[in-house]
Amino acid sequence: MKPNTGFTLLELMIVISIIAVLAAASTPNIISWFEGRKLSSASRDVLSAIQAARLRAVKERANAVVIFDLVNDTFEAFVDNGAGGGTANNNLRDGSETLIKSGSFTSVAITGGPAFVAFTSRGFANAAGTVTLQDGSGTQKQITVSTTGSSEILH
Asked: Which segments within the chain are labelled E, that is strand?
């Protein structure tokens, strides 16, 4: 005859109860961690678009612009050279001006900053400015652009 091996139903229920309590205790931390990751990702996306626009302006010897839509929480970087019947240097994407990068956010809002950042063919920004992003919990990150064209994320 074989000896009884395995777990009793009571032992299984105790283990499942312990796992449930630990999962319930860690859920709020995981949710706030995800919100922080979304904000960090969004700020890196905006910084990347700003840097790509600056590099493209120098490379193509034309103005490049990053436009921020505060209502729809989107951004768009493009070469403002008037291609395809558009008007050059008007800080609007018209005609068939080349799109460099664009993006939108679902749980992060663009809460402040300039409507656009434009770079000259030498990589200088039209004006210094700060773009502010905010997540649902109120945490903010700021992306600053200096008149020399350098940009960084402030925490």
From this structure: 64-69, 74-79, 99-104, 108-112, 116-119, 129-135, 140-145, 151-154
